Amino acid sequence: MDGFFLVCKEIGGEAPAEIQVIPHGFHKTPKGDFICDKESAALVLREFESQVNDMVADYEHQTLSGAEAPAAGWIKGLVDKGADGIWAKIEWTERAVTYIKNKEYRYVSPVFLVRKTDKRVVKLINVALTNQPNIDGMVPIVNKGSFEALSNKKEVTMKRLFTLLGLAEDASEDTAIAAVNKLKTPPQVVANKAVLDALGLKDGAGESEVVGTVMAMKQGHTQAQELTAKITALEERNKKRDAEELVALACSPQAWG
User: Fold this and answer.
1) What's the pTM value of the predicted model, to 2 decimals?
2) Which of 61, 114, 138, 173 is deepest in the core (most CB within 10 A)?
């Protein structure tokens, strides 16, 4: 059976339109350890989207007790924000907004299921306003304004990086990482089969073999050119000598009687 978790987050003096409900990464808590990663976020969002009704945010987890449980707000959607965790888009009731502005409620406490086999969060149950956090010292929630500014800056930076890598603006992080790793790895030159056959090399011959063979052929070609030049010069000298001998013979005295 999956584990049942209560996690608390502090909220500020305003009622944010978005709240972080599950932090990203591995966390050790007095209630047990849990992990929220890419796989976990996908499971949580899939479970949420399969529900027709809005998810309730109540007071002090009253929904779990079965007692009268007026809503403090309604969760309209979940968003996976990667390293910033899973966030909820929430519509607070007027009474909840008043409580939060007056700091009469300071914490938000999500309830979720954790899979025992690997400690991954698999389902968000609901969220509650509370003043009795079960986990002390959690990072205060980022308000909507500052988070959006940070997200926008990060998005612009990532788009510029994708452009430099020659990727589409909507490329995934895995695609970007693969592109960076490719740049870090020196290219391996491997000739095609026709070239290898012409060079007398076996399939799969490496760069050093191809370069070595070409250089040897180049050196042999140079030597052949030099030898051809020497032979040509020698033939020219021989032709000149033979011509001179014929001239000399033609001009020498002859006996007529």
Assistant:
1) 0.50
2) 114
